[in-house]
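Dear H.,

Thanks for agreeing to be a second pair of eyes. The structure we're designing against is below in token form, covering all 304 positions.
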């Protein structure tokens, strides 16, 4: 009887010690907290599944220009802005997510306002869109009008620190933040795949009338759409950070070489724009951008 049990015990031991079938864990990335959970101090991160980048995203150049404090109705009364809106795609139901400026800029670059309700300086944990682009090996630059050799913390007017969200993540400015003067040469020779542009406090419409800010914006857009990077299926988003105090509906103009003269009345907000930027560049969505309605209706099929 003992001779019969011994082979059975050996077989059982071999089966018990065999390695289980290998499993592949889901890829994940740490995301910024969503506005519903943010506090004045950082909140625990959450894990999100990384979407696969589309082949189209590999050749995409994305430009973002952020203007200031103008409702959709007011902006369309300015001839230069109305002309841009008529020529390209316009979202007519696009909303700011907070007030004043800073929380909107943070929402656009991290998917969260971080519970901030003022324009003061807050050193946030490292992260946000800039760090995400760097980690993914995507070339990028943020061009700031008025930025000087004094640096992003001390540059004088018309530069405004509160309009430079990249200076908040990690408590310092990355080297990708440069003066706007560098843009024209980069458009000609080596345009980064992601371009962020913050005009100074006059040209963004914060301190000056649209009669001055609008033509300046029109000239900037003309230089961008003449660039090889934009003409090669690029996408330019022109957005206003917040409304005029009476309405949170702000303009969003989307300029692509393949889609013009379009108006879309779907409901969008700053998280939708962040989602669109990340989708176009093949990046996972951060924070509240995860569940935001993307700007699909404002983009031609080849850039979706």
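And this is the sequence the design step returned. I haven't edited it by hand at all.
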């Amino acid at each position: 009887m003992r001779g019969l049990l011994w082979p059975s015990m050996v077989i059982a031991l071999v089966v018990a010690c065999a390695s289980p079938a290998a499993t592949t864990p889901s890829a994940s990335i740490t995301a910024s907290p969503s506005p519903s959970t943010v506090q004045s101090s950082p909140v625990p991160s959450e894990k999100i599944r990384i979407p696969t980048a589309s082949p189209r995203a590999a050749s995409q150049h994305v430009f973002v220009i952020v203007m200031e404090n103008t409702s959709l109705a007011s902006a369309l009364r300015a001839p230069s802005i109305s002309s841009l809106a008529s020529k390209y795609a316009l979202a007519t139901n696009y909303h700011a997510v907070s007030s004043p400026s800073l929380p909107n800029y943070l929402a656009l670059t991290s998917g969260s306002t971080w519970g901030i309700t003022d324009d003061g300086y807050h050193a946030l944990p490292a992260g946000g869109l800039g760090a995400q682009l760097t980690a993914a090996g995507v070339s990028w630059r943020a061009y700031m009008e008025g930025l000087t050799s004094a640096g992003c913390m001390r540059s004088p007017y018309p530069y405004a620190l509160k309009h430079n969200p990249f200076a908040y993540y990690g408590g310092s400015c990355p080297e990708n933040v440069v003066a706007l003067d560098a843009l024209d040469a980069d458009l000609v020779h080596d345009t980064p795949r992601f371009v962020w542009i913050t005009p100074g406090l006059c040209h963004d419409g914060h301190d000056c009338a649209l009669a001055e800010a609008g033509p300046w914006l029109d000239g900037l857009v003309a230089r961008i759409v003449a660039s090889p990077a934009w003409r090669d299926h690029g996408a330019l988003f022109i957005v206003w950070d917040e409304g005029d105090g009476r309405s949170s509906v702000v303009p969003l103009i989307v300029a692509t070489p393949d889609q013009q003269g379009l108006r879309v009345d779907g409901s969008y907000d700053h998280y939708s724009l962040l989602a669109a930027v990340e989708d176009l560049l093949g990046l996972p969505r951060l924070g509240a951008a995860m569940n935001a309605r993307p700007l699909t209706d404002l983009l031609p099929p080849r850039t979706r």
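Two observations from my side: The CA atoms of residues 184 and 223 lie 8 Å apart. The two ends are 72 Å apart (CA to CA).

Warmly,
E.
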